[in-house]
Design goal:
The chain has 449 residues and is of the alpha+beta class. The protein folds into two domains: 18-220, Beta-Lactamase; 292-449, Heat Shock Protein 90. The chain contains 14 helices and 13 strands. It has helices at 18-29, 36-47, 79-89, 96-107, 114-119, 134-139, 156-162, 195-255, 262-290, 303-310, 313-319, 339-356, 388-393, 409-419; strands spanning 57-64, 67-74, 122-124, 143-145, 167-174, 177-185, 298-300, 323-327, 334-337, 362-371, 374-381, 423-428, 434-443. A hairpin with a 2-residue loop joins β1 and β2 (67-74).
């Protein structure tokens, strides 16, 4: 007998050891398509849960240049609220969207001023004589502080802010580089901080530190890629714009000559009009590609969005010359994406299929569940297909196999799928058509009263 287990086990039945529950929650946050701050909120929620490690509150500092700056505070205001948070977090089937919304509500509560005060705390991250809490980050050591009011090594500003005698400072370290610090306390329950709690919190700190380091490294790589893409874009735009501009200039010069025959004048004006429209199309496509922002993904029902695209007059007009085969899940789950981008992605796939397929060919659109947490939207065509070298360049901006294409449709699709944590699978063979599968994170629809 063979049993299958998922790496990500969101449901804890309550009998699991708290260490396993905590580490499961934290490790899963690294797989979610949310911002660095949101995933750090998940980690801090796990650390401050009433039945978690045992800490009531967490303060996060992040390193910016040579400074350690207060970033956010998270925690309940009572033992009852702490228990409620852990109960919410442990609910079977709860999604990270709900957890993050709950976290944001705690951080942004109007009556809380601690977060704002924390942002005012800034320390030198390389000062060997730094006071606590910065001393933990400077020394790269976990510091357990007791009797803080009588200890001259504790910064008085921080002591006035935290308002407790006992707390623990966990430096966030990755590759021997400090990226931040988390300060934990039990201000609500006044429970003593035990060595076992500190060890577990230290492991969480290592995970969080490496996650922040990886996120920052990824951001730097994206910046490098953007600079390279800007260079390519400059060359591409120059190439794309040169021909129509030269044509417009040449035919305009002819019009300025005296005694131009009316027939030639009409021909030149028609050419100039067509070249201007070509320029407008280039500018529109470039603007559409560049304006795509990292919109927050949400769960929504994909059926109406798919129907809107398939019933779009432009799509209907183009599909008239093809054999359309549409098979849709009659009761699809909710998918995680930006709803507007979802429709644009499907429209791009259909446009590519139309362009690659001769009239009379077949284009298939299908949706189905791949697993309880994965929903597939696929578009298949019977067109010319692609060779292996072409497939390797598919998602690179400005690469295209079309005579008049700009090569921005598939990079746009990839950007959307990356934003919502989805995946793209491509199968194609020269002369045998192409299949594009978009795999979205999904969940079952919530029951409505």
């Amino acid at each position: 007998m063979i049993e299958k287990f998922s790496f990500l086990a969101p449901d804890m039945d309550g009998s699991e050891p708290r260490e396993l529950a905590l580490l499961s929650i934290i490790s899963q946050s690294f797989f979610q398509p949310f911002s660095l701050q949101d995933n750090l909120l998940v980690i801090m929620t796990a650390l401050t849960s009433g039945s978690g490690v045992g800490f009531n509150r967490a303060m996060l500092f992040l390193k910016e240049g040579d400074r350690l700056r207060g970033e956010m505070w998270l925690g309940p205001r009572s033992a009852e609220e702490a228990g409620m948070i852990w109960e919410v977090l442990s609910t079977p089937g709860i999604g990270y969207v709900e957890i993050i919304e709950h976290n944001r509500a705690l951080v942004n509560k109007s009556e809380d001023t601690l977060s704002a005060r924390l942002k005012g705390l800034v320390y030198a991250a390389d000062d060997e004589g730094a006071l606590v809490p910065a001393a933990a980050a400077v020394r790269k050591e976990i510091l357990h502080v007791r009797g803080a009011a009588n200890d001259p090594l504790v910064d008085r500003r921080f002591l006035n802010l935290i308002g407790v005698e006992e707390f623990v400072c966990i430096p966030l370290v990755a590759r021997d580089e400090v990226v931040g610090e988390i300060v934990l306390d039990n201000a609500i329950t006044r429970t003593p901080i035990l060595p076992a709690d500190i060890k577990l919190a230290g492991i969480c700190g290592l995970m969080a530190g490496n996650y922040i380091y990886s996120a920052n490294l990824h951001r730097k790589l994206l910046d490098v890629e953007k600079m390279a893409a800007m260079g390519e874009m400059a060359m591409f735009v120059t190439h794309q714009l040169r021909n129509p501009i030269v044509a417009i200039g040449g035919f305009t010069d002819q019009l300025l000559q005296p005694n131009v025959p009316e027939e030639k004048r009409a021909r030149n004006l028609a050419i100039i009009r067509d070249e201007i429209r070509r320029l407008e199309d280039i500018i529109f496509q470039m603007g559409h590609f560049l304006k795509v922002s990292m919109k927050e993904p949400v769960y929504f029902e994909p059926g109406p969005a798919i129907a809107a695209v398939l019933e779009n007059p432009g799509v209907l007009a183009r599909s008239g010359g093809y054999a359309m085969n549409v098979r849709l899940d009659p009761c699809p789950p909710e998918v995680l994406c930006d709803p507007t981008s979802f429709g644009e992605v499907l429209r791009n796939l259909l446009d590519n299929a139309f362009d690659a397929t001769e009239a009379g060919g077949t284009i298939s659109v299908r949706t189905y569940r791949k697993s309880p947490t994965a929903f597939v939207l696929s578009v298949r065509d019977s067109g010319r297909g692609m060779s292996n070298p072409d497939k390797g360049q598919l998602f690179k901006p400005f690469f295209t196999t079309k005579e008049k294409g700009m090569g921005l449709g598939l990079p746009f699709i990839k950007r959307v799928m990356d934003t919502c944590g989805g995946k793209i699978e491509v199968r194609s063979r020269a002369g045998a058509g192409s299949l594009f599968k978009l795999i979205f994170v999904s969940r079952e629809r919530e029951s409505k009263p």
